[in-house]
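Write out a record, fold above all:
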Amino acid sequence: MSSDPSRGSTPKYHRILLKLSGEALIGSGAYGIDPEVLGSIADGVIAASSLGIQMGIVVGGGNIFRGLSASAHGMDRSTADYVGMLATIMNAVSLSDALEKRGATTRVLSAIEISQLAEPYIRRRAIRHLEKGRICIFAAGTGNPFFTTDTAAALRAVEIGAEILLKATKVDGVYDKDPAKHKDARKYHRVSFTEALKNDLRVMDATAFALCRDNNMNIAVFAMNDSGNISQVICGADVGTLITSDTEQTRFSEV
């Protein structure tokens, strides 16, 4: 897939929410943030934003700290989740810096108070920033333990009135079985929420998925290995998998 954002450059959406996993920032390392990978992601976000759309971003913290894994090794779950929220703030501030150096105007809005680094998350303020063309990066999840950044992404998407939630992952879409283990795995081009639940596709955690389903928030799942994919998805290109509330028949991608 070409990363040229000029190909098919008419945006299909006006306001979107992009969910980035923390692991997307690691690169070839075992943990942390790879500056080169961060720069590539920032380039993709800038190209998408230049299409004239309003963009919110939720970034995970798994490249630095995973609350669930830590709690499994004896740490109190609430404490572990709050540490994980701090990890998302580190990633959000780093992404903001990379975007600002490329000429974008950003705002980091945190669900927990950390005034030296971010504004407090206030829904109306976030929407106002978006309307002024600023890229809003939502940090610290929902501000509550026991909720994932997937749930935070679904919640923020609904709150800001996004038209679609874009989930950038390491995999190029949603498959009927694990493509790393099964050579005959088939990728969905389009699948309904009902079918995804029926086949236990695990696009997101159950809370996030239910929130999107109940609010008719379509989800596009695609690979982040090409930063140009963000623009392509926004322009309606056949990239990745679309999970939709429509009752249209499920379709698999052609090989």
